[in-house]
């Protein structure tokens, strides 16, 4: 039987197609493998270039690199297997690296925990210190308040005692002054009687000093009875002598002074009364009243320390200023 | 058969035997490596996906042993290597899961400590 003409025409083509089928399949398989290997290389490169995973899981990375290299070099029959192994190795390397990264974070969290505990302890200590300081200040304030109360109470007691003592002293002084006044009045009466009887006829003028263009005569405090404005007989005689020696013209100022004992107002009044008594004595001795003026200075112009008896005696005086 | 021909046949037989012995030793080494990897993964106590991977590795190891017994060398080699790689992945995933849980736990612990000790003024 002769072959059909069409069959005879197609036979070579069919034979060629049949012969080329394995070659085409082989070419397709090689291309797919190349794509798979390219994917593996890319995945490995991604893993290697991840900065957060750098230098982690060294052994697993090495195995992954080796597996990818094996896949690149694999024979045709081993290609699928080698690609699968490389996939597993890359996945294992990534997981191991991430696990190591997390282990590092875990250690960091432990350090953070320690830091929190330290900070909390420091805060607690600081709070305790502040509380202690607050309590200390509170106690100090209470102590100061108590001390102040005690001091105020003591001061009040002291003032009361001082007031009582001053009152007692004042009363004693007053009694003494009255007794002395009575004594001096008695002596004055005796002296007046003596003068009247011619016992005291002459006495020196009061001591004097020059101040600028003026002459100042000082009648000492003992010219009067204590607390009194009455001149003693000696003082009256002394003033009569002074009156006889005064110039015929010019003004004469008479200033009374006291010491600081007693109230200001009382001292001022006493000094004025004594100045008036001297003025009257001078008038009685013949000095024109128009030339005379009398003022009381009280304790305002001391010439000596009032702290001593001698000083107080010097401050009790009447000054006759002749200008 | 001449003497020379006998020598040649004997040499070929020895060569075949040595080659077969070397291949057997390589298969055994791969199986041992796979068994070690599986044991290591089991010690990591994997859960979830990692446990599934470990189950796969065990199955592949068993299949590799079977293939080795049946002297299907290529299959045994592939299965053993696959079991080893799968077990290594199971172990790495188990470690990753454990590390994640550890970090999550410590993060929560630190946040709680910070809130209790620092934010709330140190009252415990």
Structure description:
- The complex is a heterodimer of chains A (323) and B (124).
- Chain A is of the alpha+beta class.
- Chain A is 68% helix and 9% strand.
- Chain A contains six helices and five strands.
- Chain A has a five-stranded mixed sheet with strand order 1-2-5-3-4.
- In chain A, helix 1 runs antiparallel to helix 2 (58-73) and helix 2 (58-73) runs antiparallel to helix 3 (79-196).
- The longest helix of chain B is centred in the C-terminal third of the chain and has 47 residues, at 73-119.
- Helices cover 88% and strands 0% of the residues of chain B.
- The relative contact order of chain B is 0.12.
- Chain B is rod-shaped and about 100 Å long.
- Chain B has 124 residues and is mostly helical.
- Chain B has helices at 3-43, 49-69, 73-119.
- Chain A binds chain B through residues 57, 60, 63, 67, 77-78, 81, 84-85, 88-89, 91-93, 95-96, 98-99, 102-103, 105-106, 109-110, 112-113, 116-117, 119-120, 123-124, 127, and chain B through 74, 78, 81-82, 85-86, 88-89, 91-93, 95-96, 98-100, 102-103, 106-107, 109-110, 113-114, 117-118, 121-122.
Based on the model shown, name its key terms.
A: 323 residues; 5 strands; 68% helix; rod-shaped; B: 124 residues; mainly alpha
Short précis:
The complex is a heterodimer of chains A (323) and B (124). Chain A has 323 residues and is an alpha+beta fold.
Strand order of the largest sheet of chain A: 1-2-5-3-4
Distance between the ends of chain A: 191 Å
Instruction: Work out the number of β strands of chain B.
Output: 0
Q: What shape does the CA trace of chain B take?
A: rod-shaped
- The residue ranges of chain A in which pLDDT falls below 50 over 5 or more consecutive positions are none
Beginning-to-end CA distance, first to last residue of chain B: 99 Å
Mean pLDDT of chain A: 87
Outline the low-pLDDT stretches of chain B.
none
Mean pLDDT of chain B: 87
- Chains forming the largest contact: A-B, 33 and 28 residues
């Amino acid at each position: 039987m002769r072959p059909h003409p069409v069959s005879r025409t197609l036979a070579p083509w069919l034979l060629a197609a049949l012969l080329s089928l394995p070659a085409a399949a082989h070419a397709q398989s090689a291309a797919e493998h190349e794509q798979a290997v390219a994917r593996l290389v890319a995945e490995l490169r991604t893993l290697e270039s991840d900065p957060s995973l750098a230098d982690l899981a060294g052994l697993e990375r090495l195995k992954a690199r080796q597996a990818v290299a094996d896949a690149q070099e694999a024979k045709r029959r081993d290609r699928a297997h080698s690609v699968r192994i490389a996939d597993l190795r890359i996945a294992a390397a990534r997981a191991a690296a991430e696990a190591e990264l997390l282990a590092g974070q875990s250690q960091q969290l432990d350090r953070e925990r320690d830091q929190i505990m330290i900070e909390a302890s420091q805060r607690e200590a600081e709070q305790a210190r502040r509380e202690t300081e607050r309590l200390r200040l509170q106690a100090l304030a209470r102590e100061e308040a108590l001390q102040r109360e005690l001091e105020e109470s003591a001061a009040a007691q002291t003032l009361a005692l001082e007031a009582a003592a001053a009152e007692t002293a004042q009363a004693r002084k007053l009694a003494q002054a009255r007794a002395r006044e009575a004594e001096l009045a008695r002596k004055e009466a005796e002296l007046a009687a003596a003068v009247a009887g011619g016992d005291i006829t002459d006495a020196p003028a009061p001591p004097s000093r020059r101040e600028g263009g003026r002459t100042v005569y000082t009648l000492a405090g003992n010219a009067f009875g204590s607390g009194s404005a009455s001149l003693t007989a000696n003082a009256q005689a002394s003033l009569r002598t002074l009156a006889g020696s005064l110039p015929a013209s010019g003004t004469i100022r008479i200033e009374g002074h006291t010491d600081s004992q007693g109230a200001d107002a009382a001292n001022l009044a006493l000094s004025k009364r004594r100045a008036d008594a001297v003025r009257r004595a001078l008038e009685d001795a013949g000095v024109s009243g128009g030339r005379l003026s009398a003022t009381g200075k009280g304790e305002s112009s001391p010439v000596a320390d009032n702290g001593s008896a001698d000083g107080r005696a010097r401050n009790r005086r009447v000054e006759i200023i002749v200008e | 058969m001449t003497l020379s021909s006998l020598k040649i046949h004997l040499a070929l037989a020895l060569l075949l035997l040595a080659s077969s012995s070397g291949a057997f030793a390589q298969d055994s080494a791969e199986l041992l490596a796979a068994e070690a990897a599986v044991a290591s993964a089991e010690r990591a106590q994997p859960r979830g996906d990692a446990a599934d991977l470990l189950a796969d590795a065990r199955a592949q190891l068993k299949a590799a042993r079977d293939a080795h017994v049946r002297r299907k060398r290529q299959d045994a080699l592939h299965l053993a290597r696959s079991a080893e790689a799968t077990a290594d992945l199971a172990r790495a995933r188990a470690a990753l899961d454990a590390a994640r849980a550890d970090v999550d736990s410590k993060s929560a612990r630190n946040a709680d400590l910070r809130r209790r000790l620092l934010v709330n003024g140190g009252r415990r």
